């Protein structure tokens, strides 16, 4: 990441601009195995979840929400296997989700017995709409549910005889659809009930459960919340953006600038409906601005392979950093600028990555730059020769270019379409290699 120019150094029109940028990585929490998994047509089985868990650990995640163990036997068993099978390194904390309901909380404590580090993540919905339409209750009603949940969690932790290190997280679900002063009110009460302190802070997770407004509005809500929560020192402010308006990452970035310190999300943005915040995009956005994301993205193709196999989801060709087409350049002028950038880097010995049209060095994420030369009946003489050289290592003499180009054009006309590089090689081989 050091080779990318920190964004604050870029000055536009002689202004000190921008004045607020992300300068360090948040605490990341992957919710792939819970929010991501619950939104799959076919949820992951035990082997897939274990493999995915190890992948997340290898990337450097220290907090991983592994599931909802009180929700089903399968989820319970997976939680037990992770613990009993010694899959969890000592410096990794597993997080388990539970509704603020007595029998589910009790079952959750059973599920995590023997784990070294656990975050019990409890939630209930607080939004205006859910209160009116689903729960038919008022703010006092939902606050009572949260306080009772918090008290029971505190009691079960005090009674616990093992040596698990417990921490707590509370989510006022649909935070962004809740009157923000009500969200502050309920979280103040939860903190009191849990007895949160600076030494043992609660994670207050502020979900943009359904992304219903522009990123700056979510960030404003988070900022208001941070300013008004009574005991700021005794809590860690966590974000949980979803992507319904397609701006999950932007919401996370702005809300981080508003003062949050933790971010929940998933690889490639898997999750309910349009997904959760995409941690790969957000992390690499930091990386390309000279900030260490503290997660290892150096082999994205491998991550993609594991992700696609375990989730049975496909990555969009234009998905930032990993889509098939994001390191291709189709336009001749882009290719020219990229070549000039590469030459400039060689000649100048600059310490920064300074190549137009490539915001990141593809090699940093285990990929390669691919100039795409269109090979059709309209292409110039140089295009076919370039592909022969770049893709196949044949440097054709200049004198040969017009003749070879004619053969290629003839083939395109016969087929009525452009050629892929392999077909181009066949034209070459038929005419010059095969006797
Ligand atoms: O999106 C959401 O609100 C959630 C909560 C359960 C944290 O996933
Ligand atoms: Zn969610």
UniProtKB/TrEMBL annotation:
The residues that the entry says bind Mg(2+) are 35, 240, 242, 276
Q: Which pathway does this chain act in?
A: Amino-acid biosynthesis; L-leucine biosynthesis; L-leucine from 3-methyl-2-oxobutanoate: step 1/4
Instruction: Kindly list the places in or outside the cell where this protein is found, as annotated in its UniProt entry.
Output: Cytoplasm
Q: Which residues cross the membrane?
A: none
Q: Which UniProt keywords apply?
A: Acyltransferase, Amino-acid biosynthesis, Branched-chain amino acid biosynthesis, Cytoplasm, Leucine biosynthesis, Magnesium, Metal-binding, Transferase
**What cofactors are annotated for this protein?**
Mg(2+)
Q: What is this protein called?
A: 2-isopropylmalate synthase
Organism equals: Ruminococcus intestinalis
Q: What is the lineage of its organism?
A: Bacteria, Bacillati, Bacillota, Clostridia, Eubacteriales
Chain's gene name: leuA
């Amino acid at each position: 990441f050091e080779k990318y120019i920190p964004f604050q150094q870029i000055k536009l029109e002689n202004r000190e601009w921008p004045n607020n940028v992300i300068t360090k990585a948040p605490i990341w929490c992957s919710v792939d195995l819970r929010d991501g998994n619950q939104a799959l047509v076919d949820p992951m089985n035990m082997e897939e979840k274990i493999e995915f868990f190890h992948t997340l650990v290898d990337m450097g995640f220290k907090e991983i929400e592994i599931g909802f163990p009180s929700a089903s036997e399968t989820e319970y068993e997976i939680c037990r296997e992770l613990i009993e099978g010694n899959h969890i390194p000592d410096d990794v904390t597993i997080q388990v989700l539970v509704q603020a309901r007595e029998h589910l909380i009790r079952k959750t404590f059973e599920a995590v017995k023997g784990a070294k580090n656990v975050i019990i993540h409890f939630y209930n919905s607080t939004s205006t709409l859910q209160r009116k339409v689903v729960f038919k209750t008022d703010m006092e009603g939902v606050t009572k549910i949260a306080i009772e949940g918090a008290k029971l969690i505190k009691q079960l932790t005090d009674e616990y005889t093992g040596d698990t290190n417990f921490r707590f997280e509370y989510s006022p679900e649909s935070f962004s659809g809740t009157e923000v002063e009500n969200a502050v009110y309920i979280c103040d009460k939860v903190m009191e009930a849990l007895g949160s302190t600076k030494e043992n802070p609660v994670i207050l997770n502020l979900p943009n459960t359904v992304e219903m407004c522009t990123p700056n509005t979510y960030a404003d809500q988070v900022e208001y919340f941070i300013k008004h929560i009574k005991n700021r020192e005794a809590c860690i402010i966590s974000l949980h953006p979803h992507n319904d308006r397609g701006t999950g990452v932007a919401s996370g970035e702005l809300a981080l600038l508003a003062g949050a310190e933790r971010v929940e999300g998933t690889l490639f943005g898997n999750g309910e409906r349009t997904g959760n915040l995409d941690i790969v995009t957000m992390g690499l956005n930091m990386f390309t601005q000279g900030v260490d994301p503290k997660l290892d993205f150096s082999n994205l193709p491998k991550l993609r392979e594991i992700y696609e196999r375990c989730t049975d989801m496909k990555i969009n060709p234009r998905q930032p950093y990993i889509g098939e087409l994001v390191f291709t350049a189709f336009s001749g002028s882009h290719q020219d600028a990229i070549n000039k950038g590469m030459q400039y880097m060689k000649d100048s010995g600059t310490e920064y990555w300074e190549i137009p049209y490539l915001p990141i060095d593809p090699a940093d994420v285990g990929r390669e730059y691919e100039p795409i030369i269109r090979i059709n009946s309209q292409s110039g003489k140089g295009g076919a020769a370039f592909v022969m050289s770049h893709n196949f290592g044949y440097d054709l003499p200049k004198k040969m270019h017009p003749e070879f180009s004619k053969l290629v054009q003839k083939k395109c006309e016969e087929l009525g379409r452009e050629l892929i590089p392999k077909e181009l090689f066949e034209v070459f081989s038929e005419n010059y290699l095969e006797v």
